[in-house]
Design brief:
Blueprint: H1 2-17, H2 50-65
Length: 115
């Protein structure tokens, strides 16, 4: 939560310094795990955490319905993270192809490592 709060405050401050107004509905920043399945119905958190529940629901809506061009996040630090990406990496029944397929080389093409 700390890094999220700092990022939101800095972005809002930067907009204010340049005379820009916040967009309607805020900055569209969310506290979420980008690899969590957006189609899973989450339990509601207790009322002190209602803002987190709202942010998570908004993030799930974005992940499921909005074409995203850029995502800034922490990558997995585990060098053996293959096949641990959940819905982003594997097909979920009724959801079509996994989003990661858009970034994989076509079958029969050798993948190039960046390491």
């Amino acid at each position: 939560m700390g890094p999220f709060a700092v990022a939101e405050l800095r972005a809002a401050d930067l907009l204010k310094k340049h005379g820009a107004e916040l967009p309607p509905g805020g900055l569209n920043l969310h506290v979420t795990d980008t690899l969590d399945d957006p189609y899973v119905q989450e339990e509601q958190l207790a009322s002190p955490y209602a803002a987190l529940s709202v942010s998570r629901a908004r993030a799930n809506h974005v992940k499921a319905n909005v074409p995203v061009t850029v995502v800034i996040s922490n990558p997995p630090y585990d060098d053996k993270a293959e096949n641990r990406g959940g819905w982003i990496e594997k097909r979920v029944k009724g959801q079509g192809r996994p989003p990661l397929d858009d970034f994989r080389p076509p079958p029969g093409t050798a993948a190039t490592s960046t390491r």
